[in-house]
Amino acid sequence: MKRYDKKKRSLLRTYITIVAVICSILFLSFMLTYIIINKWYMKEAEQSAQARFLQAQEKTAEAEKDIINLYSTVTSSETVISYLKTSDLSERTQRLNDFSQMTGGVMKINPDVEAILLYDEAGQLIATKGTIFFPRQDSLVTNGMYGFSGTIADKETGYTYFQVEMPVYSREASGGYNQLGSVVLLFGSGGLADIVDTLSLNEEVYSAVLDSDGNVIASAGNWKEEYRDLIDGEQENSKYLVYGAKLEKSGWRIVNLIPKNSFMNYVNQIQTINLFTYFLVAAALIAICMLMYHKVVQPIRRQMEFVVGYTKDTNQRIEVAENNEFGEMAEKINEMLDGLEALNRQIVEGERKYLELEYAKKQTEMIAYKGQINPHFMYNTLECIRGMALYHEEKEIAKLTGSLSKLFRYNVKGDELVTVKEVVKNLKEYALIIDYRFMGKFKVAIGAEDTLLQVSLPKMLVQPLVENAVLHGLEPKMEKGEVSVDFAEEPEERMRITVRDDGGGMEKDVLEKLRKRMRSYDEEQAYATAKHGIGLSNVYRRICLFYGDKADFRIESEVGKGTCITMIVPKRMGD
């Protein structure tokens, strides 16, 4: 025992040493990753910020081009030119509808267009379109082509707008151009705001589009007063990344200011998670060291003790106390032992069923011989009666005696398996006897598909069901009745045998009791019933013995409509 304790303590010291080494490696890896990630992430963040700024700059320049193209469309419109050329007030009134439709289409094309103003050559406002109106203070055109205004702020709503003006020319017959007036478009800053929003990943990042006077047209992020000197380039600060560019056509500027510590917030969060993870790993290693003995050594010892004691008591099983590989191993061992026990039971059950099947075959033969002292004597006697009937020209008696003779010979011959063709032939003889016996009141109709005639099945499987149908279904009736027997193909190489009568049927409670008796059939009851003939229960048991769970046996009945028994069995006995 002392030697075992010494080994256990040595193993524990080994675990502690391993944990200490791993914890040291974790600490060094944390420090290295912190330094490497800081440098790498800052570099990647700067490159990403610069790329986003260039994309925003390109989008803003494209927005300028779209505005110029839109103006070219408006100023070159024949509707606008015709309206400006017309000086007569009544004629302008007539053309105002065309102007309104054309400008309405322009405003649909560019939703940022809030209003369109039309000025004549003298600078007088002669037409407007839109719900927001800011008059032009002075002409915005500085280069003879177009001009952009500064920021226009709505004090009530706080929204910002800007105007763009472009002159309208008409070509003279001499080839020169004459200025007729100008078009002023009032734009909302929503489109520019969407562009600068892409630069502001959080509230600490500030981005804006400024007019030529430095006023804000559109912005995103929180403004700080110290940003003004950074934007004007009068101050350098290592705490910020500053990007700025001038827009060519409007003279505006787009700026982007990013605090460097906003990048580090993500890094710090990652490092905090890493540090927490390292602490968890270290704690887990310590816990593993403490639990190793209880979770590894003890389960192995319990399983070894079980193996030693199993030979003394084969009914015992390993206690599954762990929810891990050892517990799974114990479950698998228990499953293996249960499987072996089940296999042994199957072998015993198979032997029992084999003996029952042999016994059932003998019972069938005994039932067929029941009441017969000498079967051959009875057969010969029936043939003798048939011959005498023919001699005295009693053809009906001869025919009935012949059918009874054939039926008796079929029942007493030793073959256990018969073909569907033989069963059909035997049932036709039985049907003839029933027809004579009840003077044509009851009929037995037999049908079988040609593909099933050579299929084998146990003897005395169908005839008892027909007898039951006549005895219990048709005889209690006062009027005529019929029993139909049908052999039909089923999918998956199976055969359906249906015995149906149009007799009185069964009540629901009687039918349910019969089904329950079938489900929980007792062997001794089966053999007791066999003493008085092959009844419905015995047919059900023979199906179970011959086909097992591959056969299907159904009973359906309705009062006043009759009873239907359906058997679905494999076409080959071995299937």
Your description of this structure?
There is one protein chain. With 575 residues, the protein is an alpha+beta fold. The chain has two domains: 10-288, Beta-Lactamase (2-Layer Sandwich); 415-570, Histidine kinase-like ATPase, C-terminal domain (Heat Shock Protein 90, 2-Layer Sandwich), CATH 3.30.565.10. It contains 14 helices and 17 strands. The strands form four sheets. Strands 1, 2, 3, 4, 5 and 6 form a six-stranded antiparallel sheet that branches. Strands 12-14-15-17-16 form a five-stranded mixed sheet. A hairpin with a 3-residue loop joins β14 (481-490) and β15. It is elongated.
What topology emerges from the helices and strands here?
Layout: H1 2-75, H2 78-85, H3 89-109, E1 113-120, E2 125-130, E3 147-148, E4 152-153, E5 160-171, E6 177-188, H4 190-197, E7 206-210, E8 216-220, H5 227-232, E9 240-246, E10 253-259, H6 260-310, H7 325-368, H8 375-391, H9 395-412, E11 417-419, H10 420-437, E12 442-448, E13 456-458, H11 463-474, E14 481-490, E15 494-501, H12 508-519, H13 523-530, H14 536-547, E16 552-558, E17 562-570
Parallel strand pairs: 12-14
Antiparallel strand pairs: 1-2, 1-6, 3-5, 4-5, 5-6, 7-8, 7-10, 9-10, 11-13, 14-15, 15-17, 16-17
Helix pairs in contact: 1-4, 1-6, 2-3, 8-9, 9-10
